[in-house]
Amino acid sequence: MPAQPDLRPDALPEQTGFSLIEVMVALAIFGLAAVALVRLTGISLASATSLADRQWAATVARNQALEALLSAQPPAPAQGRERAGARDWDWQRRIAPGPAPGTMVVTVDVRDAGRIIARDQLLWSPP
């Protein structure tokens, strides 16, 4: 006949594992961390898109400023649209007197929805 197990509390092996409360707290912490990571990913994607737009706008501003700089004629105020990336960008070129006689400061602003998204500035001097 097999021996009867000893069921006295001090004779039972020590129980290991997590209680239900501990598991629920751990899941709550994990859930909060997961939500924070998902939100951070969304913000990161929005920032990357905004940064790409600013880069395209800066390219348009530089192109227009360089066109004015390389022109044989003195630059004049102008505005227009240029395609860069997958969209058209509105730009405006302003001219101001330069620091030395005969020079001009060429400023090109690229706008999106009425706000300046990129600006470039060069000093034009006669050849």
Features:
Pantoate--beta-alanine Ligase, Chain: A,domain 2; 1 helix; four-stranded antiparallel β-sheet; 127 residues; alpha+beta; 40% helix; single chain
How does this model look, in words?
The protein is of the alpha+beta class. The chain has one domain: GSPII I/J protein-like (Pantoate--beta-alanine Ligase, Chain: A,domain 2). It is 40% helix and 29% strand. The chain is built from one helix and four strands. The chain has one helix spanning 20-70; strands spanning 78-84, 87-97, 104-112, 115-124. Strands 1-2-3-4 form a four-stranded antiparallel sheet, with helices on one face. A hairpin with a 2-residue loop joins strand 3 (104-112) and strand 4 (115-124). It is rod-shaped, with a radius of gyration of 33 Å. The mean pLDDT is 87.
Topology:
Blueprint: H1 20-70, E1 78-84, E2 87-97, E3 104-112, E4 115-124
Antiparallel strand pairs: 1-2, 2-3, 3-4
In short:
The protein is of the alpha+beta class and 127 residues long. The chain contains 1 helix and 4 strands, in the order αββββ.
Q: What is the CATH homology-level superfamily?
A: GSPII I/J protein-like
> What is the annotated CATH architecture?
2-Layer Sandwich
Give the overall shape, derived from the CA principal axes. Answer: rod-shaped
Q: By helix and strand content, what is the structural category?
A: alpha+beta
SSE pattern: HEEEE
Average pLDDT for all residues: 87
Tally of alpha and pi helices? 1
